[in-house]
Each structure stands twice: as structure tokens, then as C-alpha cells.
Design a protein that fits this description.
The protein is 71% helix and 0% strand. It is mostly helical. The longest helix has 18 residues. The N and C termini lie far apart (42 Å). The mean pLDDT is 87. This is Chromosomal replication initiator DnaA C-terminal domain-containing protein. Pfam families: Bac_DnaA_C.
Length: 190
């Protein structure tokens, strides 16, 4: 049976990039006769990576613009920014540092206690530093709070760890995709 499948076409399906997400959003808006500002469409596509969520966001913004007192029913950049900020705050409030630690531990196949522990094994250090990066750069937690959560002596360890991940993300595209995938799985945006 597997030999029959192996003779078939194999296609690697990637998530849509920014341009494709923008195009999808504009096409969906056109199909539903929704007037949307180009900058608003680009901002939505920048913040929302999932194609199904794009359509949901579009419909939510349409509802808001129709219920506003504005004479125009066009989805503006101002309305979009305001609603994206609300969405981001809502997601941040739902995701706890413990959720991040569990997700990283699961991804790297280590125990959450290893992330909080003292071991300097490479796989533990990497997981720990990715947690530091997400808590600092994505969730915007204070350095001292992150140090406390991860049982580090002081905030300088967090600065070093988060900085190391930031640098590696710039240098290594596959690592950036790995970290971005983890961030997206948590429902956060980069």
C-alpha cells in the first residue's frame, strides 16, 4: 500500500507569506463587497498569520465599522489598529508564563523543571533562553519577573538569554521559523 502512495506527487505546503495573506484578505473583502483601506489590510495580514483568522478578523472589523457612527463603512486603519491591540491584549492575558514554559518543554522534549533548573546541558539552555525571549520580547514581562519565574539569580541572565535568541533568529532562518512556530502555537504574534 505504501509503495502506491510513494509514487504520487509530494508537495510541501507552506503557510502563506505576508503578500499572500494580504491578497487573500483583499479578495475576501472584494467577494463580500467590503470596503477596506489597503493599509488596514496590510496591518491585519502582518499581525494574523492564520488564513481562517483573517476572514474572522475581516468580518469583526466590518461589524464594528457598520455599527459606528461614521458616515463611511470603510474599514479604516484606526479601527484596525484599535481592534488588533484589543486582540493582542486578550491573547496576552490568556497566555501565562507557565503556558510558555510547558510549550517550550514539550517542543524540545524536556521537562518544565529542566527549564527552571540549573543544568547547563545545551538542550535545557536553549529551551530556557527561548522562554526568556518569548516572555521578554513577545509578552513584555519585566526582566526581574522573568528571572523570578525561571529561578535565576538576577535579570542580567535574562538579558543575555533573550539577546542570544534574538541574535540567532537574525542569523538562522530555520531557527527563526522554529521560534515563530512556537510563538504562533501559543496564540501570540511576533
Amino acid at each position: 500500500m505504501s509503495s502506491r502512495f510513494s509514487g504520487g506527487l509530494i508537495i510541501d505546503i507552506q503557510k502563506p507569506d505576508f503578500e499572500l495573506r494580504t491578497a487573500i484578505l483583499l479578495i475576501k473583502a472584494q467577494e463580500r463587497k467590503i470596503d477596506i483601506d489597503m493599509n488596514a489590510a496590510q496591518r491585519i495580514a502582518e499581525k494574523i498569520k492564520d488564513t481562517r483568522e483573517l476572514e474572522g478578523a475581516l468580518l469583526k472589523l466590518l461589524t464594528i465599522s457598520l455599527s459606528s457612527d461614521s458616515a463611511s463603512n470603510k474599514i479604516s486603519i484606526e479601527t484596525t489598529e484599535r481592534e488588533l491591540k484589543k486582540r493582542e491584549n486578550s491573547i496576552l492575558n490568556k497566555t501565562s508564563p507557565q503556558d510558555v514554559i510547558r510549550a517550550i518543554a514539550s517542543y524540545y522534549d524536556i521537562k518544565p523543571s529542566n527549564i527552571r533548573g540549573e543544568s547547563r546541558k545545551a538542550e535545557f539552555v536553549r529551551g530556557r533562553q527561548v522562554v526568556m525571549y518569548i516572555l521578554r520580547n513577545i509578552m513584555k514581562l519585566k526582566l526581574e519577573d522573568i528571572a523570578y519565574i525561571l529561578k535565576r539569580k538576577d535579570h542580567t541572565t535574562v538579558i543575555h538569554g533573550a539577546g542570544k535568541i534574538s541574535t540567532q533568529r537574525l542569523r538562522d532562518n530555520s531557527f527563526r521559523q522554529e521560534v515563530d512556530g512556537i510563538i504562533e502555537s501559543l496564540g501570540l504574534s511576533t
